[in-house]
Amino acid sequence: MASFTNYRNSNTNRSQDDPSKDLRSNIRESRLIQPEQWQSPEIREKFDKGSIDFAEVHSILQQLGIKVQKFELDTILEKHDRNKDKKLSKEEFENLYVKLRAEKDPGSTWGRTVKPTAGGVDRFVTRRDATDDPDAHPSSVEQQQEASGPYHSVLVEERVWTSNWLNQLLADDSHLNLHANPIDSTDPQALYKRCQDGILLCKLINIAVPKTIDERAINLNLSKQDIFRQGENLELAINSARGIGCKVVNIHPENISKAVPHLVMGLLWQIIRIQLTSEINLKHVPGLVLLLRDGETPEDLLKLSPEELLLRWVNYQLKRSQYSGKSVTNFSGDIKDSEAYTYLLSVIAPANTKPPVGLTPLKEDDLRRRAELMLKEADKIKARAHITPEDVVKGNPRLNFAFVANLFNTYPTLDLPTEQVPEPGLIIEETREEKTYRNFINSLGLEPHVNYLYSDLCDGLIILQLYDIIRPNTVDWSKIYKTFNAIKERFQKLNNCNFTVDYAVEPLHFKMTGIGGPDILEGNKTLTLGLVWQIMRAYTLSILQKLARSTTPIADKDIINWANQKLKSANKKTVLTNFQDHSLSDSMLICDLIDAIKPGSIQYNLLKTSGTSEAKMDNALYAISMSRKSGARIYALPEDIVETKQKMLLTVFACLMASDMNVAKN
C-alpha cells in the first residue's frame, strides 16, 4: 500500500508569517501557445471576407490541431455566434479556439486560456476547475510572453506540491538523486528542467504502474548536450504514458525538452493521479464492499471513478464519527472549512496514536488557522502529504484529491470480518484485456473518461467518436442523442447503439455477426470486447494507411511482408511467418526488427536465451520498452508476447511498421 509521510525541508512549508507566501499561492505561471498554422495564408484568407460560415469551422480547427467532434460543435457554435447569423467573426473564432484549446489539450486542464488585451496588459481568466477563488489580478501572473495570442497557466501551489511530492516519492532513486539534490520548489523552472531528459518521467511511470518500462531501455547518466538520447527517453516516457492510459494527444518530446509548463504539468498530474489511485480497488482493499449502496454489487464499484470512490469513502467514515454536517460531494467547496477533514482524521487515525488525533481544530473560527491546526492533526499520523492551509481554504480540487487519496492509501480503515474476506479468485477486478482496451481509448483524449468499458460504452457515444477518428465523417451526428431524457433514456441509448452496429458494418466493414445494438447497451462483455478489439485494430491500420498514403486498406500480409523485408535488409536471420508463431514468445524477432529500424539500438547482451518464463518476460518487457523508445505507440503488455496473443502481436508489428514509416518520412 503506497503511503507517504510528511517530507519536510526548506521548500515544503510556507511561512505563516510571510504575507508574500500567501500572495504566491495566487500566482499563476503562464506560457504562451502560438500554433504556426494560426498565421498560415490559408486561414488568413478565410477571414478576408470578415467572417466564416459554421460549415468551415470544423476544418479550420483541425488545421489548428484541435480535434473536436462535429456533434459537439452544434451547441458550442451557437454560444459563440453573437449576431446569430450562423457565421463567426475572427474575434468570435479566436474566442472559440481559446476555449477549445483549453478543453481539448490534456495539459491545459492545468489552466484556462488567457488572451492579452490590446494595451499589452495580460487579462487573467480564472481557472474554474482549479480553484473557487474568484480573485485573480494581472499583477499576480508570472508571464512568459513570446508572441501575441492565447496562453496557458499553471497554479504555483500545484507546481510546488508536485515538486515536493516527487522529491519524496523518488527520494531513494540513485539516478535522480533527489534526496541530496531535491527539486527546488521555489524556482519556477526547476521542476520542468528536471523533466527535460525524460529520466524522471520514466521513473515516475514505473512507480505508478510497476514494470511498465524496462530500466535497461532508459538512457541514464546523460549530459545536458546529449539532446538525441534525451529525446529517446522522452519518446519512451510519452509512449509508455500512453500505454497506461494518459491523454498525450498534444504532448510531444519537444514540448517536454522545451519545458512547456502546462504540458509538463498536465502529463505529471495524469501519472501521479494513476499512482495515487492504483490500489483503490477490491483486489488491494476488499473492504471497499462496505461502500456499496442498496441494490449494488461489487461490480458496480468498477463503474465509479477514483474521485467517486473516495467521496463515498469519506462519507462512510464521517458516518462513523460524530460529524453532523452535510455529505461531502466534492474536493473543493465542501472541505474548505476543514470540519469534514477534522472528523475524518479522528476516525481513521490508529487508536494508539500518540498524541491522539482529536477535534481541537474545530474550536478555531478562523478558517486558515483551523486548516493549519487540522493539518497538524494529520501530521500526527504522518499523512499531511505536503498540502497547505491555503490549499484547503481555497478548495483546490487536485491537491485536496491527492490529500484524501493519500489518507485512503495510508489508513483505509475498511476492515472486513475474516469470514467476509473473499478468496483471491473470487474478487471482481478488471482483466488484462479490459485494461488494455480502456487505456487505449483514454489515451486518445475522448470524453468522457472511461472507467469501466461496459458501463461507459453502453450509450454508444465513445464508440461513435472512435469511428470518426478511424474514418473521419463516418457518423451523422444529427441522428445521435448526445444527452438523454430520463424517461426515454433507454430508447435513446439503444438508438445510438444501433448506429454503432450499422456504421461498423458499413463503411468500416467490421465483422458484426451476432452483435446487435442491445448487446452494447446491456454491456455484453464478450461482444463488447470483440467490437473494441476491431476498433483498436482498425485504428492502428488506419494510421498505417495514412502513412503509406495508400488508397487500399493495409492487410496482415502487408505487415508480414514489410517485417521480413526489413529483417532481410538488415541481414537478420529471423523470419516472421504469422502472428500466431510461438517462436515469437522469446521476443528475439521483435528485437531484431527494432534493431533493423534503428540499427544498433538493441543491446543483445541483455537478452536472455534460457527459454524460461522469467527470461521470456524480461525479454518482452525490454522489447516493448525499446519499441516505445523507437517511437512505436504500443499498448500490448509483456504477457501478450510471451503468451503469443495473436491480436496484440498484430498491433505490436503494425506499430513498429508505423514507427519505421515515420522515421523514413522524417
Automatic annotation (TrEMBL):
GO MF annotation: an example: actin filament binding
Domain Calponin-homology (CH): 156-276, 304-412, 431-540, 553-661
Keyword presence, Lipid metabolism: no
Listed GO CC annotations: actin filament; actin filament bundle; cytoplasm
Biological process (GO), any one: actin filament bundle assembly
Domain of life: Eukaryota
Compositionally biased intervals (Polar residues): 1-14
Region (Disordered): 1-40, 121-149
Entries under Pfam families matching the protein: CH (PF00307)
InterPro entries from the UniProt entry: Actinin_actin-bd_CS (IPR001589), CH_dom (IPR001715), CH_dom_sf (IPR036872), EF-hand-dom_pair (IPR011992), EF_Hand_1_Ca_BS (IPR018247), EF_hand_dom (IPR002048), Fimbrin/Plastin (IPR039959)
Keyword Transit peptide in record: no
Biased composition (Basic and acidic residues): 15-31, 124-136
Domain EF-hand: from-to ranges: 68-103
Record's keyword terms, sorted: Actin-binding, Calcium, Metal-binding, Repeat
Name this protein carries in UniProt: Fimbrin
